[in-house]
Amino acid sequence: MSILDLIEKGKKSREKKARVKAIKNTAIGAAIGVTVGAAAGVLLAPKSGKETREEIAATAKELPDKAKEFVEKAQEKIEEAKAKLKDKQAEVKAEFCATETNHAAENIKL
């Protein structure tokens, strides 16, 4: 494995981190969009003021639980991605060390 291969692996690793960040941002944006959409739907529904207020109160009580669940799922996915990246980093480091050791051994033989 050459140094160019190692550089390419590093580049792929950085690209993967960027994709994970983009997915996280998309998920957060989707959650915000759903929340805003639900609130707009409740406020624009043809109901009496009392019914609308009750529905808003019920939705407001549910939001912390939903937000907590969303954050927990996001944290799990982030931890999984971190573990995969850490494993890949160790693999690349081992390959790099093996390559350097082989090059050093070849230079000693010469």
Topology:
Layout: H1 3-44, H2 49-109
Helix pairs in contact: 1-2
Describe what this molecule looks like in 3D.
The structure is a single chain. With 110 residues, the protein is an all-alpha fold. It folds into 2 domains: 1-45; 59-109. Helices cover 94% and strands 0% of the residues. The protein has helices at 3-44, 49-109. α1 (3-44) runs antiparallel to α2 (49-109). The longest helix is centred in the last third of the chain and has 61 residues, at 49-109. The radius of gyration is 25 Å and the shape is rod-shaped. The chain starts with a helix and ends with a helix.
Key descriptive features of the protein:
110 residues, 0% strand, rod-shaped, mainly alpha, 2 domains, 2 helices
How far apart the termini lie comes to 20 Å
How many β strands by DSSP? 0
Number of helices: 2
Return residue spans where pLDDT drops below 50 for at least 5 consecutive residues: none
What Rg do the Cα atoms give? 25 Å
Order of helices and strands: HH
Instruction: List the domain count as a whole number.
Output: 2
- Overall pLDDT level: 83
Largest sheet: none
What portion of residues belong to β-strands?
under 5%
The geometry reads as: rod-shaped
Structural class: mainly alpha
